[in-house]
Amino acid sequence: MNLLEKEELARDKAIELEDASPEEIIRYAVETFPNITFACSFGAEDVVLVDMIQKVSPSTDIFYLDTDFHFKETYETRDRLVARYHIDFVRVSPKLTPDEQAAAHGPELWNSEPNACCNIRKVEPLTRILSQYDAWITGIRRDQAPTRANSKKVEYDTKFGLMKFNPIAGWTNEDVWKYINENNLIYNPLHDQNYPSIGCEQCTRQVMPGEDPRAGRWSGNDKTECGLHK
Q1: Which of 65-69, 145-149, 221-225 has the highest mean pLDDT?
Q2: Tens digit of pLDDT for each residue in 140-177?
Q3: What's the first-to-final CA gap in the chain, in angstroms?
Q4: What gap in Å lies between CA 166 and CA 12, rounded to an integer?
Q5: Residue 223: what pLDDT?
Q6: Rounded to the nearest 5°, which phi and psi values hold at 3?
Q7: Is the dihedral of CA 152, 87, 92, 110 positive or negative?
């Protein structure tokens, strides 16, 4: 399938599957693109998709970007998911250790150049792992941020050059938590402490009442995305 055919397929399927359930979209994705992976950050949306994928296609690869800067609660959530589902999460690490990054770019790069830090610790590792696949699944939702408002449930990802599936793009935050509660899912306990969106510890803070749900990410500058999603 050439690039034009993939783009046409994505457009057609985005229309066809707009009203499909997340499970139906996952099933279509894994059957059409067996060489597919799911990018898991262990947030609320992603534990929902872990559960769905285990029910629909438990052999599908699931990876996470280990930036070395995650909250301990995030690593603990990973370990609890491993224990429940017996998943062998694929760990993807940056080429530089935190010490090597500090030596090459100065201390606390996340403060001086947050985009550069994200590129080193997230974007480059993601580009590397996605180069091994034909498609990927993500947990992005349209109401998470203005930059995601136009996300389709099926897209051709021009940034990374593969098909992209967003099965719960149309869900609300209430939909996510309804599924979590009804299915008694494991989730990151930081969500109960006013952390709706959880990234690296240095760049994530609690969100106060009335603030935008993503106000806790890269607080104090105009950065709203780490660069994983265009």
Answers
A1: 65-69
A2: 999 887 888 999 999 999 999 999 999 999 999 999 99
A3: 23
A4: 15
A5: 46
A6: -60, -45
A7: positive
Alpha helices (H) along the chain: 3-16, 22-32, 44-56, 72-85, 98-105, 109-112, 114-118, 124-130, 173-182
Q: Which amino acids are annotated as binding site, given as ranges?
A: 117-118, 200, 203
Q: In angstroms, what is the C-alpha Rg of the chain?
A: 17
> Cα angle at 123 between 119 and 128, to 5 degrees?
130
Mean pLDDT lowest among 35-44, 137-146, 172-181: 137-146
Which amino acid type is present at position 178? K
Annotated binding-site positions for [4Fe-4S] cluster: 117-118, 200, 203
Catalytic residues: 226
Give the pairing type, strands 90-92 and 135-137. Answer: unpaired
Cα-Cα-Cα-Cα dihedral sign, residues 1, 50, 172, 218? negative
Identity at 85, one-letter amino acid code: Y
- Contact in structure between 91 and 224 (CB atoms under 8 Å): no
Please name the residue that has the structure tokens 């009442």. 209
Across-strand partners of 92? 65
